[in-house]
Amino acid sequence: MPSLALDWLLEGPYGLLVALVVIGGGTALNYLRTRREKMLSFRVRFNSRLGFDPPDAGNVVRLIGPDHTEIPDPGMVVARIKNVGRSSITEQDYVHRLGLTFPGTDRRLVTVDVTEARPPDLQDLLTGEGFEVHDNRIVLPRVHLNPGSEFKLVALLEHTSGTGKPAVQTNGILRNGRIFLDSDGRRLRRSTLIGAGLSTLLAGALVAVLLVGLPPDPRAECAEGELTVNGSSAFADAVRTLAGQYMERCRGSRITVDASGSIEGLNELDNAPPEDGPRRLTLADGRFDGGGEFPNVEIAGTLAVVPFSFVVHPALPVTDVPRAELAKVFRGDVSNWNEITLADGTRGPDTEVRVVGRTSTSGSRTVIQKLLLDGDPPAGNTVNSCAAARTEAAVEAPIICEVSSTGAVIDAVSRYEGAIGYVDMPNAVAAGTAVTQLTVDGLGATLDDLNDGYPIWTVEYLYSHGPLAETADLTRSFAGFLVDADQADEIQQLGYPPCVQVGSVPQGLCSKGN
C-alpha cells in the first residue's frame, strides 16, 4: 500500500481512529514505529474454532466449563497488546478505554485471562479494578504502558460454529495517538496453542479440559532430554521465552537457561566434560572463534542484532553525549559530569559520575571495550559497592562499581544519582522510566539509527561444544528452533532484529557482525 494511502487510512478525517490494517503486519508496524505519536499495537495471534471440519471427523478438543457442562462449539482468541511507540501511554491518554468485542448472535465469553505481561506486575493491574467482562465484550482499565510494555489476552468463547473465522473488533481512542489493529491470526500453530495459550488460560480460569486425538504438528521436530543454555544475560530473557514455547510444544524436553555472562558461559562450554558438553549451548554477545581462547567451542548459529544503550539515572539532565566523551567516562578519566561536554556544546551538571560497569566475564563489557574504547579495557572498579560514598574512593578517582548482570545494571543506575551504565536496548526499554536512555551524537539504539551509523551494537551468537551435528538430539533441535524463520516474529516482538527475518530474509547487519 502506498505511503499516502496508509497516511490517509491512519489520519482519517477525525485525526484519531482505530485502523484495521490489511497490509502485511511487519511492513505496517515498521512504518508506524517511525512516527512520533503514541502507538498501541493490537495483534491477533490466534483466532479459530477448537475443532476440525467436517463435523463427522469428531471433536478434537472438548472443554468442560466452570458449571461442569460441555462448552458448545468452543473457540479461542489470543491477542498481544503492546505499546510500540516511543512515548509512554498514561492513564490520562485514554479518551475512550480499550475494548474488544466478539460479534456473533450467540457467541459468549466463557472466561478471559491476562498472561505474559511485561513487566510482570502489569498483569495484576490489568486484572484488578476496572477490568470488565460482558457477554461478548472485554473492557480494559486505563493502565500506564511504558514503551515496550505488553501483555496477552486469552479469551475462550462458545458458539463459534457457522460463523466462518470468528470476528474480533477493537475500539478505543488515545489522545495524540492511535490504536493499530493487525488481524493476522496465523502466528500460533495448533500445537503451540494447546501447549501454551490454552493451558495458561485453563489454569487461570480453573476450567477442566479433555484433549482427544490431537494430531502432532508435522513441522515440529521435537526431541526429548535435558539441555542447559548459559551465557549472555542481555539475551537470556528472550531465550527463556523461546525455551518455554519449545518445552510446551515438545513435552519430553527440559531446557534450563542460566544467565552467567558471555565469557563465563563460553569457558564453561569449552571446559565441559565429554558427557556434559553435547547437552549444552551458550549465548554470547559477539563472535569468538574456536581454536583460540575457546578451542572446543564452535558457532552453532546467529540469532539477532543486539543494540546497546547507555542509560543514566532519570534525574540526571543529560540526554545526548558525544561518543568521545562517553569513552572518557568508561576509561575512568572523569569524576564529575561538569567535566563532560554534551552534544549541544554545553557542560554537564555539577554531579558526581557513578559508573556501573560489568565484570570481566560479561560479553556486554567486551562490546563496550571493542566499539567504544577501541580495544582498551574499561577502568576497573574503585569501590566495592555501587552504593559506596565518595569517601570510600580515592579523592581524585571516579566512583566505578561492577555488577554481574543486565538487571543489576538497571537496578543500580535507577537507584544512584549521577549513575551511568550500558545494557541492551530492549532491556532498557523494558525498564521504562526507571532509567533514561542516552543518544550518542544524536543517534539512538534503534534499527534505523544502527543503519545510519549508531556504533554500539553486536550480533548474538549461539555456540555448541564441538560441531553442532555431533551434539545431543535436543541440543540440535533447539538450536534449529532458535534460528528458524518461524521464530523471527517472536524475536522481533522481544525487541531484537532477528538474523533470519519473516519469510527467511536475512538481516544485513548480522553478516557484518560486531
UniProtKB/TrEMBL annotation:
InterPro entries listed in its UniProt record: PBP_domain, Phosphate_ABC_transporter
Domain of life, source organism: Bacteria
Record domain PBP: where: 222-484
Keyword Membrane applies: yes
Entry keyword set: Membrane, Signal, Transmembrane, Transmembrane helix
One Pfam family cited in the UniProt record for this chain: PBP_like_2
Spans through the membrane: 12-32, 193-214
Protein name: Phosphate transport system substrate-binding protein
Native source species: Catenuloplanes niger
